[in-house]
Amino acid sequence: MKYSTLPLVAGLSFIATGAIADTLTVYTYDGFNSDWGPGPQIEANFEAECGCDLEFVGAGDGAAVLSRLRLEGDNTDADIVLGLDTNLTAAAAETGLFAASGVSGEYDLPIDWTDETFVPFDWGYFAFVAGKDVAAPANFRELADSDLSIVIQDPRSSTPGLGLVMWIEAAYGDDAASIWADLADNIVTVTPGWSEAYGLFLEGEADAVLSYTTSPAYHLIAEEDDTKTSWTFDEGHYMQVEVAGKIAGTDVPELADQFMAFIATEGFQSVIPLTNWMYPVVTPAEGLPAGFETLSTPETALLFSAEDAAAKAPLAIDAWRNALAQ
Amino acid sequence: MAQRAGAVIVPRWPGAIVIALVLLLTVGTLIAVLTRADTFGGLGSADRAAISFTLLQAVLSAAISVIAAIPVARALSRRRFRGRSILITLLGAPFILPVVVAVMGLLAVFGRNGLLNDALTMIGAGRVSIYGLAGVVLAHVFFNLPLAVRMILQGWQSIPAERFRLAAALDAPVFSLLERPMLRAVLPGAFASIFLICLTSFAVALILGGGPKATTVELAIYQAIRFDFALDRAAFLAAIQFAMSLVAAGIAWFLAVPDASGAGLDRMARRWDGASIFSRLSDGLAIVVAAAFLIVPLVLVVLRGIGGLGDVPVQIWPAIVRSVLVAVVSTSLTILAAVALSVRGGRGVVVASALPLAASSLVVGTGLFIMVQPILNPAKIALPVTAMMNALMALPFALRIMEPAVTKAERDFGRLSTSLGIVGWARVRMVILPRIRGSLGFAAGLAAALSMGDLGVIALFATSDQQTLPLLMYQLMGSYRTDAASGAALILLGLSLGAFWICDKWGRHGAEN
Fold this sequence. Notes:
- The complex is a heterodimer of chains A (326) and B (513).
- Chain A has 326 residues and is of the alpha/beta class.
- Chain A is 36% helix and 20% strand.
- Chain A is globular.
- With 513 residues, chain B is an all-alpha fold.
- Chain B has a domain at 7-36 and 312-513: MetI-like (MetI-like fold), CATH 1.10.3720.10.
């Protein structure tokens, strides 16, 4: 694996260097701006166009980014917030800190995108990732009836965990609680975040882990390991759509608009598949990277609107907790 | 010789400053969080369930850790063997490991695919599952047994050599005369420390607890801040954690009867008891069982890490430099604060040795962020804040270790020093510091190692180009790079243990001469 060599000195400086060009500050989750995430390449591509300084500020996961923004309120240094998902956008919009994006576009999403504040930048389907040697159940009921073991994430501390709760809610509605009760004996454990769950799965602690349909692509492309697959469920798969929004109080509004428009272009979208391991919202000209065609593609996409998601989440989490705390 | 009226025997004001800082960082940050709360609601039934589970697991974990530590500490205190000092250092390793790394190590032994289940399958027995209350307690004992052993071992080593000699000469029962009073003085503090550590457990309890049954207060706080943005509930839950911890610390303080049978000449103890075959065997067994329990998971962490070393990205170098710098600064702060407080003594010590342990790091981080952010960009002070927070979190341990030593030095040599006119800073430098060198080295090693392995509040403040080693490791884990993360974990383990070993060695070098 290759990594760009950062000058050590730059890494050591505690104080951000003062920039002469305008600076566009983008808050995002840590993984987005890690050296192997999409951040550095996107930064280079955008700076080549804008003659500005793009600064990514990583702050935990998507939920942490939003809570940081809420703490800062009108004082925030952010011009753009990138990395919320549709389970968080209602709360984000409610802060009143975001401006209309002014961007509309044709997206390669399985759903219509109508939100005027938030612009999608990548997406994926939640799915259980397992070894190919494990017999795949066709839906949640089959999974619940089987002896298969799974690791999931806590919906109270993790975005995929919340995604799974919303998935079962979207697929089963009033029956969600009974599905959870039946799944209880399949769940080996619940972790605070995605990393711990995925780690447990790789260590063989469970047959499958809640992740994304795109996860096997990482193993296939980066590790040349084709033993992983994801289970396709016939009730459909809940989606995660990751979005960006423009802060109304930005001091560089033109630059912020330029970045919002840049999101749907090649310079941003072509970086996504092999760094964030998600689907781009606009397929790059040369198509998806080799290997992505092997991924399973669900027939039905499930997704609540931001308002529905915000309204349903607390009750769905309660149902989850009550069913599993028995 | 009468002492001049008003002379300062030992300086008290530095301790007062430390207490004020501890209060600001714990209670002050909680109030800062409250000021930003929009609503004021009560607790739900889920919160109450979290409180009772938290208490249950913390009591069990602390009790088992302390009870299991007694035979191990006793064996280590009266046996001399090759590699004893390295063994003592290694036994401390789990305590300073990043949680996720330690859990992975434990699962490699006790997990579904672990050594234990492999062995059980081989002999035809059924598989056992670690997940549930048992798993939580097992992991907490794994983390805290080393701490309990070291605290109790310190107690044994603090019994003056002359008394063992006297007991041997009189053929008197060592246990009831010397050991029981010492245990009575040391155990409540050890129990309380571990109880407090387990009180704020979050990731361990959730990962090994198997689900929402094992929800702790810390997780409820996390949810309140991150997902519900209910700052009032977060602050309220944090206040409950404080209350529980203060009650626990208060009870421990009350139960710990200072051992007051007079001073010795401050020499290394030699033991005449424990020569029977039975006690040799039982000591050997205690050491072997504890070593296997604590070291086998570590060996598995190391083995996995070696395979991943080649995948570790070059960003590891600046991350290592940052982590070491932070550790040096936070260790110095911890030791300064602990000396200042120990010399001052009194109730402030109880507060400072309990509050930071009971503080929810998310609430402290959020509160600091609220206080700092209107004044300056939090990212610019991410590393100093991390060093300060790490120092705060290590302070209770440093105090538990150093305060008894300082008290003893004062009790045994205080009157003599005062009569010789050694007061003020000279007293601290000439009388107290040389007497507590062993404790100081141990405390510094612990503080350095804890700082090295702690994620702390860096994630809340830093931008991505200020990664410390633990943050880098978590980011590698979070982007499928599990092999590289194992490699980073091994480097982290090496650095933590190295820092601990250097400081502890320095301290024990002084003690054994």
